[in-house]
Write a structure and sequence with these properties.
disordered C terminus, 70% helix, mainly alpha
Amino acid sequence: MASVIGYALAGDGHDSASIQNTFNTHKYQLLRSSEEIMPQELAELLGVSCPDSAFEDGSSCSIRPETISGQQNVKLSVVHIMQRSVSQHFPKPPADLDRNLQQHLLNVQETVRHELVKLAPLLDRMGLMGCLINCYHRQTFDHLNDLLQNTCSSKNCLLLMKWVVHTYQSQELLDHPDLQEMDPIKKVDFLLLTEWVTKANDKLLKNVKKEVSEFLEKILQIERRQEGDRAEAYVGLYVDTIQCIDAMPKEAQKISAELSDHVREVCFQELLTFLGRYAAEQTEILQKEAKMDKPDTTHFFKTLNTCKELKQHVQTRSEGIKTSLLQETVATLENIETFTLKLLMEIVADLAQSQLKNYFKTENKQFFCLTIAVQTCFPKLPWCQDIQKRVMDEAYKLIAHIYLKHLVQSSQSKLTKCWSPNVGQAVTADAKLLHNSISNLAPGVQQWNLLLLNITELLECKDIDGMKLMVASMQKECLTWSVDVALLPDLLRWKGLSGRQVREVLGAVPGLQPRPRSASWFSCFGCC
């Protein structure tokens, strides 16, 4: 809060909590006054009563004591009268403070300014203006302490802080043109202000934590009840969440950049707690949906889109946030994304397996059944096209790999009988249909079918040297090479090469080491 206090302060001071301390602050000025100060007359001027026995020695404020001690009592009586006047004129808080705080602060501002400007000509000449300013200053912060204690919302905490930082020392009050010659800002005890700002900061952060937590919980409750396919249902969670954690830092920014950072950090901490609950609920919901015979993937895309938008927001609004908090928040979102994408790929794998397990064993060659099943499972979603492209990109890659795996596990001679004499052309047709189907769902996806498109050329190649060149070319061109390379030995054997020829081809390709056929080539694809 150093910047808030620094911004608000125009000087230094010391704390005084009693009438005696107020008197001590101005005693030297009062004792040097060129005019005789009569408490009774001052009381009449200020429109307040003067008690008949104001002092311990029983002297009346209307009688001038002749001793030094009596003079001090008179001066003390003057301060007492001024404080009584200030208290009498100071606006009382409204019954419904939370609803009427702004108007009440305006009343305080106008009343204090009016009284200071009205009394300045006379009291300044009497040497009493500094005392009056300090009395109003002390009364104002006593009153602000009461207001702060009774304020229930972060909105009103911010309103109070904004009034203290921006209005109190402005031309609307202490720096009013009619008061500038007396320079009221230099006559007040600013330790009162620093102490109040510290209290206000603590209460504000406490209220922000409570309110943000409650609002985020309401967002989760709405999410649990959310039904239908309206666009609002797909974007509401992240839109509401971003608005929730962004609104208060923006308001705090109007007071101080450092205050805004403190508020944002509290909001981010509550966001992290919220994401923990969100992750747990999504894990349960998505796992249950993934086990359905015909899972609805829309909710998976909604989860991915929500994580993307929230991650983008926290990464672009992270100024002033502790690195550890930011990293933990981003990691939580990425973990949800990874888990959701994993479940989607399991759905894709199950779909591809169910359609392809008998595809290479039957004469009924209907590859379009798989593409129709994919289109049914993954309908076009205009509200998250970028997410759908990302998911379909991974799905396309996985389907192409599963197709290749089933292909090399089949008998080429049986395929020639079941399909057609030209197996390569049949595979090429399937590869093109797969690409067109996926591209229709997600325009611009990578072309993950290049290795399948090379099957015809692979089958037609008759010499080992040509095979070496072809495999080297596939290594450079095929996007799925890093995954499909594990199936390369089996693909070469499927073509009809002997074990020795397979090792010779692999040994000639940079980066490939020929290995004997073993389960290790297939271990990473056991789930397929």
